[in-house]
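Bug report (template v2)

What were you trying to do?
Predict the complex of my protein with PBG.

What happened?
Run completed; filing so the output is reviewed.

Input:
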Amino acid sequence: MVHAIRGDFPSTRMRRLRKHDWSRRLVREHELAVSDLIWPLFLIDGPANESIPSMPGVERLTIESAARAAVAAAELGIPAIAIFPVTPQKLKSEDAAEALNPDNLVCRAVRQIKREVGDAVGVICDVALDPYSSHGQDGLVENGYVVNDATVEVLQQQAVVQAMAGCDVIAPSDMMDGRIGAVRQALDAAGFVDVQVMSYAAKYASAFYGPFRDAVGSAGNLGVGDKKTYQQDPAASDEALHEVALDLREGADSVMVKPGMPYLDIIRRIKDAFAVPTFAYQVSGEYAMLHAAAQNGWLDLPEVRRESLLAFKRAGATGILTYFAKVMAEELVAHP
Ligand code: PBG
């Protein structure tokens, strides 16, 4: 740690460098850029987009609209989108079989998006069973417990099905043990050696996912259940480093910390310890919180939006998944 203490008051005045805008700009260390942003999109199979009450400004998109959003992302310079399907209840089952259907909503959307934008925008697909399972859990359930190894076998197939559709980045968000190595092996065996794996490596059992579960319609399926037997305990932090170490050894190309703002310490520890691409997910509850306060006139949305995203960069994040991606990119293009 370097402490560059130059002197005492009055010769040292910390405010001198802060006095002018040009000077503040000159000495700042961190910058938010469009190329830091990943835009999560929700997909529906219906005829029209649907609003999501707990996520103002976010909609569940038809495949056509999602493809248009991808084109907008390309035009703005947003490097990647992450897509999350809303599965009709009638297609959900105990074994989440729809996850393996090569014609499911995600696969059809990936094909359409890739047809429209080609390589201009990366497409990230979540690997986990919760959008497809009748119990809302990320894995297979036996005797009330989410079983690890049998789940991993399904996740391997889900990853390959998504890669076949043209997905660029497979993002396992399920927190099963050993799934990164297993998914890497399955992708390689199927010939997808260049498809990336972005691991949700340090994903906490968080109440901040509430609006997401409304958005994808899994809240009702999960009911009073929780994900504490596989997602991390919010009171633990060393464990996050262990998770990241394992995932990197198993072949993860990049890792993610989730949620975002309440876990900035975890981002910093991971970035310092491993120096690998480390993404932050500013999750649905964080987005909802900022919007709700702004709607009450209690916070200035453009200001807190930019500050909250910049904080991730300062904490060491390589990039940020955020529902603000499009509006933030538009603002950054207008006022860099
Ligand atoms: C699915 C998944 C979740 C999120 C991303 N992928 C929800 C969960 O784990 O219950 C949450 C994202 C958000 O809240 O914005 N495994």
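What did the reviewer find?
Residues 54 and 182 are 36 Å apart (CA to CA). The chain has a mean pLDDT of 97.
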